[in-house]
UniProtKB/TrEMBL annotation:
<dbReference type="Pfam" id="PF03861">
    <property type="entry name" value="ANTAR"/>
</dbReference>
<keyword id="KW-0804">Transcription</keyword>
<dbReference type="InterPro" id="IPR012074">
    <property type="entry name" value="GAF_ANTAR"/>
</dbReference>
<dbReference type="Pfam" id="PF13185">
    <property type="entry name" value="GAF_2"/>
</dbReference>
<dbReference type="InterPro" id="IPR029016">
    <property type="entry name" value="GAF-like_dom_sf"/>
</dbReference>
<keyword id="KW-0418">Kinase</keyword>
<dbReference type="GO" id="GO:0016301">
    <property type="term" value="F:kinase activity"/>
</dbReference>
<feature type="domain" description="ANTAR">
    <location>
        <begin position="166"/>
        <end position="227"/>
    </location>
</feature>
<dbReference type="GO" id="GO:0003723">
    <property type="term" value="F:RNA binding"/>
</dbReference>
<keyword id="KW-0805">Transcription regulation</keyword>
<dbReference type="InterPro" id="IPR036388">
    <property type="entry name" value="WH-like_DNA-bd_sf"/>
</dbReference>
<protein>
    <submittedName>
        <fullName>Transcriptional regulator</fullName>
    </submittedName>
</protein>
<keyword id="KW-0808">Transferase</keyword>
<dbReference type="InterPro" id="IPR011006">
    <property type="entry name" value="CheY-like_superfamily"/>
</dbReference>
<dbReference type="InterPro" id="IPR005561">
    <property type="entry name" value="ANTAR"/>
</dbReference>
<dbReference type="InterPro" id="IPR003018">
    <property type="entry name" value="GAF"/>
</dbReference>
Amino acid sequence: MADSAPIAEAAAVFAGLGKVVYRGSTADDVYDAIANAAATLVDGCDHASIMMRQGDVYRTVAASDDVARQVDELERATGEGPCLDAIIDESAQVEPDFRGVSEWPRLARAVVESTPVRGAMGFRLLIDSRKVGALNLFTDTPGVFTTESVEQAVLMTAFASVAATAVAKGEQAESLRQGMLSNREIGKAIGLLMALHDIDDDTAFDLLRRTSQDMNVKVIELARRIIEQHRGEGRIG
């Protein structure tokens, strides 16, 4: 999201996600909302998906569009890719340009030949401490995924994990607030930022806070707004 984008845009995205989470929607509805929110909020992202591992089977449970689904399918067909690796490895998996020398050469060749996608990122989702998946982000512009994009995606993944876990447990709106305030998933995000930048926890927390401000998304405040809207006690915007 550009720095000049109004806070209402980001707030509306998260408010919409909050409504889906707590209006009795199915898990698939929630995953769709998360994928669409990620495609909207992360700089350079054109397509997004969520892939889940169920035993030995990897399945796309949500996608912002058909392109995201196609790239997921190519990863499964080639048996390699940043999204598959993200499910196994807690570290961020980033391919800035599939046209260059890639860690995933078979996937890179297939993606470039059959899709408009030129870059990808994968981030691990741990849901209810059992279900493991990945938030997958794709761009049509080579080299557009930057460190800032990664940091934004880390923030989005932390929020998505809390929201998806709440749905998996059938919890109510208050659980989202407590999940945010407990910093369990935010703590994981801080740990990832520490690994990405080789920094201490205080510096990582400051970086996460600055990233949320750059995105015009204050995580805990936004969680509170979502809850208030759900209860009819407040408005977004």
